[in-house]
Amino acid sequence: GRLAAGEGDLILRLCKGGYREHIWDHAAGAVIVEEAGGCITDQNGKPLDFSLGKDLSEGVRGIIASSGGDLHPAALEALHSLD
Predict the structure, then answer these.
(1) Are 48 and 56 in contact (CB under 8 A)?
(2) Residue 21 and residue 23: Cα distance in Å, rounded?
(3) Cα(11)–Cα(52) distance, rounded to whole angstroms?
(4) In a 3-state reduction of DSSP, which class is residue 65?
(5) Helix (H, G, I), strand (E, B) or coil at 77
(6) Nearest-5° angle of CA 35, CA 10, CA 68?
(7) Which of 57, 60, 64 is CA-nearest to residue 79?
(8) How far apart are CA 66 and CA 19, in angstroms?
């Protein structure tokens, strides 16, 4: 809500090993952020796939939501530089 309302620029959620993200934690927020012009992806820059059942894919270790523009690719690049 805060990101879509323009009260923030970036949200980064990183998971600890073995945790699987549930779709209900992100589905509504993803729609709101995208409708407000923002961007939301997994840690690899791939769109979130809500068609896999109650959990996102096993490869999703983090979620990045941004207000859009150049910030999202920059956040992905910074995150990958930590690997």
Answers:
(1) yes
(2) 7
(3) 23
(4) strand
(5) helix
(6) 45
(7) 64
(8) 22
Residues of the chain under the 50 pLDDT cut: none
Say which residue the tokens 């896999």 belong to: 52
- The first and second tokens of residue 2, run together, are 């805060």
> What is the amino acid identity at position 11?
I
The two structure tokens encoding residue 79: 């995150």
What kind and span of H or E run contains 29?
Answer: helix 27-35
Read off the tokens for 74: 């920059």
Beta strands at 39-42 and 62-66: parallel, antiparallel or unpaired: antiparallel
Task: Kindly report the number of other CB atoms within 10 A of residue 33's CB atom.
Answer: 21
Token duo for residue 78: 């910074």
